[in-house]
Amino acid sequence: MLYMLHSLYTTYLTAQRMNTLYFYDTTEEDKKILEQSLSKYSLVFYSTPISIETISEKASAISVFVTSTVTREMIEKMPDLKLISCRSAGYNNIDIQAATERNITVVTVPSYGEHTVAEYAFSLLLSLTRRLPETVKIVKDAVCLSPNLLQGMDLYNKTIGIIGTGKIGKRVIDIAKGFGMNVIAYDLFQDTVAAQQSSFSYVSLEELYRGSDVISLHAPLTQENTHLLSDTAFSQMKQGVYIINTARGELIDTKALILALEKGIVGGVGLDVVEGEKLLRERCSVTATHSHEDPHILEESFYITSLLSNPRVILTPHTAYNTKEAIERILATTSDTIQKFFEGTIINEIQPQNSSCGRLVLVRHTESEWNARGIWTGSRDAKLSIKGFEDARLLGDILRDITFQHAYASQQIRTMETLSSLLGALQQPVVPVTRDKALNERDYGEYTGKNKHEMKKILGDDLFEKVRRGWNTPIPQGETLKHVYQRIVPYYLEEILPRIRRGENILIVSHGNALRALMKYIESISDEEIENTEMMFGGAVTYILDNEGRAKRKDIRTTSSLTYDTHI
Length: 568
Ligand code: NAI
What we know:
globular
């Protein structure tokens, strides 16, 4: 027996080792951590970005940082490639079309460092407003200067304009508030709940330009917002405005910025990202080696040289993400995502581009006042706790990349409260909502309102577990899971699935047992196995479905800060 187990384990290990994973852009420290967490795989590391020379035909998975660009040509040369793991939130450095055509899964690290980047934005701002680089330099060089020349600017009572109020933008707002700054913001999708909670107001772009003493960029790069800060934008800004960009270099027209600096419209600029930043990293910005080959590189190189020589500019090489803690989070998520992928579960996948079928997303309501007290709520109404409202917003943050055409909730107030908070954070134009009793929580009958911990003592561990999770264990005057299945599955097949087949993305916010019943159908879980299936708190389950509404792919997204007593 022992021998058999050992040999099974050895076969499993051999199968895992057959998956060769190639990591690019890694440091020695990254390598150490990844070797530990992915010890059962065969790993190859490159400290450099990926290139045609460093790719391998044997690669089952590759993992890259933003400094690497994964092209169609590279993808074509890796016939066994199944997974591309981006060790970043963004994936604009991957040829997604080419990956999709080959059915290669692309995963990212959706959230690892909003605090990290926000803190960095402020370190750039404070360095500029308090003229730290010059101050440090004159002390080092022992130059005597009149204090006037080192005079800075208070942040207190100044107005900061935030473009992009997502995860990072919101953290920057909180920090700005701590400095006693007034905050105005612009976003394509306004988060009115956050605006109320953090006391800031949304304004038009023009108003933001006119009213801000500091402008900080936190929007992703899209075709529409390339060169958002152009000559026209700069001409509308306050004289002496400070600009901070930790988002993407292409959001600013660098030529227009240099002109605005010359005219004194821009008093100082802190850039962690800049057009042509690759040149900065390669330290060839001022060399002419590439210049005569590519006029575009020459132009970018010229701008970077001009920025580097301007004392009112602080330029850093895309490093805002770079703290010990953030890197640890990136590596932990990357390892977990890769491991789960090779064990059959896809998490943190980017949204596929060419799916004619929509997506189904299941979310369990966040903590209610009764959950907080450990009470069985069932079909009774209980409002969300304050934590419940806050956590629902975090769920919205992790679902931002999916545009929902319709949302469903049960008739209980806690799912509706979760849904409205989540939709607020999701920042999408109005999403129609249907509430239906088919999605209600299991009726706990005589056990409604009972404390779960006390019920466990009364029923004993085994019966308690059966009552909670079993397929057909009765509750006096209440429903079994089977009863819930019998109402939720027909509703799903008749009302929800046709929408998904038409290409709509659907969000269902419901309850632990109602969602377990639905998952039983979607994932074809047996009556016995359903006892061991949990619908998580603090996360979202995303499915791509076949025509029958069964799962073709399952993707789990989590917000690491949400934890509940899920055992009881
Ligand atoms: P997020 O997705 O949470 O928020 C982005 C926000 O920008 C959303 O509210 C969205 O509605 C808004 N937005 C989209 N297009 C817009 C437009 N044209 N105008 C105004 N707002 C617009 O993203 P998160 O995590 O806050 O990251 C923001 C950006 O920061 C990323 O896209 C990335 O480019 C950059 N980043 C930079 C890092 C660095 O090391 N320098 C590290 C991580 C992210």
